[in-house]
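Please fill in the sequence for the structure shown.

STRUCTURE ENCODING:
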């Protein structure tokens, strides 16, 4: 039996799935409201009720306690976290240096912008089936590189590895809770945690629902859903490597979507054989096998067709396992992040090669980008006029076209 459905180009399904089921959104609204109104007591109630926290357990950890618990992690593991943090930090800091202030001459004076960070960020690192210290690094290290003054991390039942990542990122505190209750606490404050300006980081439906609910009161990075990977493979691609990449994505979640766009039917046959072989020894095979059922394979006749297929999906991750990936990239426009060549595996991006792994899903890569220093920055514009010649007349005329006489007079008084 085929592990990947075989489709034609015209039958590719949309990946534009709702980020949050309506039932989850309705239930999350009650939790968010409770925490917003009830503060720390309500937060603790939900955290204990939903299994984030044992009765009377520590809900908040300060920097001293974070470091103490992080020291429980063995030295080699902590060294790995430090190296990954260093690569993420270096890339984020280089992104930041690309974003400069603007001071430009205009008629009558000068105008420009300055790039400034938000004051406080709330970062989320999942702690469910797979605790993700890598997400703590991707969010908190990036916020610090952007220049954010106050950074908190929320994670349910944080492991020593997650706390080591928090310590390495230099967070100010850790909230030992997850789900909608944690997002609400970040957005509105609870106990020693004061409300933040941006909530960022991946999570389950409850996290995503809460982010949707608090958006507008605070900024959010995105509404992320189940993970996606499109691998474009030609006849020169190694089927074992392609299969390994698809399975790495598939083991995330039963709702993950691994997709193969192949330049020939023989590529699909070879990958199918490898998938079956590798699944035999994969500890997460049950999850991965179900996720493969969410994906599919399609044969295309050219890289141009491959680009059309991929752009219909606008995937979170795009892997170009082709002979000349740099040249091939011209055919691909819609994706969260691209990995050029089969040696540049998506998993290296997951675990700190440099660029961020928090990326748009569900087709939203058509209009938004992944988490970066930009998530935590604002462009504040400014205007300085020495002369208003010509501006007075045009401003007054436009104001009167809109029926706003006081605007017109505020311009004309400056003649």
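FILLED IN BY: designer on duty
SEQUENCE:
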């Amino acid at each position: 039996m085929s592990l990947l459905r075989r489709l034609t180009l015209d039958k590719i399904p949309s990946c534009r799935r709702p980020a949050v089921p309506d039932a989850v959104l309705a239930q999350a609204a009650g939790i968010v409201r409770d925490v917003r109104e009830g503060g720390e007591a309500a937060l603790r109630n939900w955290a204990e009720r939903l299994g984030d926290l044992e009765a009377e357990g520590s809900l908040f950890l300060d920097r001293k306690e974070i470091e103490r618990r992080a020291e429980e992690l063995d030295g080699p593991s902590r060294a790995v976290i430090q190296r990954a943090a260093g690569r993420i930090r270096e890339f984020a800091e280089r992104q930041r240096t690309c974003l400069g202030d603007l001071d430009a001459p205009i008629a009558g004076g000068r105008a420009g912008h300055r790039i400034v960070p938000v004051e406080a960020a709330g970062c989320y690192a999942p702690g469910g089936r797979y605790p993700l210290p890598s997400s703590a690094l991707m969010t908190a290290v990036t916020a610090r590189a952007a220049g954010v003054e106050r950074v908190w991390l929320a994670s349910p039942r944080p492991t020593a590895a997650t706390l080591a990542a928090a310590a390495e990122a230099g967070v100010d505190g850790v909230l030992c809770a997850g789900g909608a209750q944690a997002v609400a606490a970040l957005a509105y404050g609870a106990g020693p945690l004061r409300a933040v300006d941006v909530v960022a980081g991946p999570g389950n439906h409850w996290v995503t629902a809460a982010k949707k609910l608090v958006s507008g009161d605070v900024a959010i990075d995105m509404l992320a859903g189940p993970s996606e990977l499109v691998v474009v493979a030609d006849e020169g691609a190694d089927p074992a490597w392609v299969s390994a990449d698809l399975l790495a994505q598939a083991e995330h979640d039963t709702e993950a979507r691994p997709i193969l766009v192949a330049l020939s039917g023989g590529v699909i046959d070879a990958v199918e054989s490898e998938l079956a072989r590798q699944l035999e020894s994969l500890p997460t095979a049950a999850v991965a096998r179900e996720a493969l059922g969410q994906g599919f394979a399609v044969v295309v006749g050219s890289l141009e067709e491959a680009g059309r297929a991929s752009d219909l999906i606008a995937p979170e991750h795009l892997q170009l396992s082709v002979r000349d990936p740099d040249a091939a990239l011209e055919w691909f426009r819609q994706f969260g992040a691209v990995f050029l060549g089969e040696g540049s595996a998506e998993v290296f991006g997951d675990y700190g090669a440099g660029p961020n792994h928090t990326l748009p899903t569900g087709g939203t890569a058509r209009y938004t980008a992944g988490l970066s220093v930009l998530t935590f920055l604002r462009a504040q514009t400014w205007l300085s006029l020495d002369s208003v010649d010509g501006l007075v007349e045009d401003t007054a005329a436009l104001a009167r076209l809109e029926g706003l006489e006081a605007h017109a007079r505020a311009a004309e008084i400056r003649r």
